[in-house]
UniProtKB/TrEMBL annotation:
Organism ancestry: Bacteria, Bacillati, Actinomycetota, Actinomycetes, Pseudonocardiales
Function: Catalyzes the reversible interconversion of serine and glycine with tetrahydrofolate (THF) serving as the one-carbon carrier. This reaction serves as the major source of one-carbon groups required for the biosynthesis of purines, thymidylate, methionine, and other important biomolecules. Also exhibits THF-independent aldolase activity toward beta-hydroxyamino acids, producing glycine and aldehydes, via a retro-aldol mechanism.
Protein name in UniProt: Serine hydroxymethyltransferase
Keywords: Amino-acid biosynthesis, Cytoplasm, One-carbon metabolism, Pyridoxal phosphate, Transferase
Compartment(s): Cytoplasm
Site (Plays an important role in substrate specificity): 230
Gene3D superfamilies, per the entry: Aspartate Aminotransferase, domain 1, Type I PLP-dependent aspartate aminotransferase-like (Major domain)
Pathway: Amino-acid biosynthesis; glycine biosynthesis; glycine from L-serine: step 1/1; One-carbon metabolism; tetrahydrofolate interconversion
Species annotation: Kibdelosporangium philippinense
EC numbers for this chain: 2.1.2.1
Protein family according to the UniProt entry: Belongs to the SHMT family.
Lineage top rank: taxon: Bacteria
Amino acid sequence: MHQPAITDLAAADPEIAGLVEQEAKRQYEKIRLIASENYVSTAVLEATGTVLTNKYSEGYAGKRYYEGQQVIDPVENLAIERAKAVFGVEHANVQPYSGSPANLAVYLAFLQPGETVMGMALPAGGHLTHGWNVSATGKWFRSVAYGVRKDTGQVDLDEVRDLALAERPKVIWCGGTAIPRTIDYPGFAAIAQEVGAVLAADIAHIAGLIAGGAHPSPVGHAPVITTTTHKTLRGPRGAMILSDAEHAKALDRAVFPGLQGGPHNHTTAAIAVALGEASKPEFSTYAHAIVANAKALAEALVERGFDLVTGGTDNHLILIDLTNKGIAGKPAAKALDRAGIELNYNSVPFDPRKPFDPSGLRLGTGAITTRGLGTDQMVKVAEWIDQVVQAENNGDEAAIERIAGEIRDLLGNYPMPGWR
Ligand code: DSN
């Protein structure tokens, strides 16, 4: 059952309580490979379920628009101080509701509508809010996008520099949602400096790896850094903006009153708890284990003939182009889900297929590493993925069912925070 127990919820609203229990069981029984997800600790779960949700706190510590902030101010200050210590930054704003509002605050702080922003194209691995055309950031600002090279699947900084020199963006984004390789922050910083742009690093996917020393940090290269708190960082659903002191005021103003009202204080407390966890030596072990698992999984997939974008991974994320397997991403993802392996279908660079029916799969090892699976199990996971793809191609539903049972058996040996 769900941990912490939800007995009052079950008594008051059995329908919702039943669904919560179902979701906890589902998370327990699945190999969860969605690259942006994780399992938070029960301490983080408890913090999100506290009376802090009852309180309005527009403003910042010591300068609020409502009374009764005797407790909220120290909660927010703790989260800020821990963020500054974990990432080694001069300023942290822990109020953004999630990654997209955090990124929008960067626009509000540094750009006027119609001015130029440059980011990685969504189909190449960027994020909607880095100026993609269906997002407000692509509609309200003049957006130019860099991609990846066809031969390497990786960003070519010479191309980024040429584009930046031609387009003169005021803000350059680096980072994204489907990048399996290390980001060259000094390289991006040199380009931003040359064209007089603010470099904004979106580290949402890799924040936990950076906190744990398993990926280079953008600090000292990007004066503005945004991140969600719930991916490899393993906190509640929320976000932060980290920056140097020079940009603190503009960013704080952009978050409140520019974009948001009252911060979600229960989330702020849970962010503080997660940052406390991330400051411990065990978290560094965890971050390195995420990368080791991703590398082991990538290697085992390549051995089974899977075509990985960039040929492998440096971080938690793997992007598979399934074209050579004779199946598209969506049917493969759905078959894998039935087999107990949860991931998402994803475009690959230069994908000839549409985004809602693309050629690829995106996988990440943040959650399964929290669960305690190691590199030995990654070989088995690759084998299961291969078997499921073949079973789906052959219409062999019995094989998919058999694998779901094997996965439930394996996961029975690995406890899940949030379920007992
Ligand atoms: N939805 C997130 C992801 O899955 O990468 C990005 O916003």
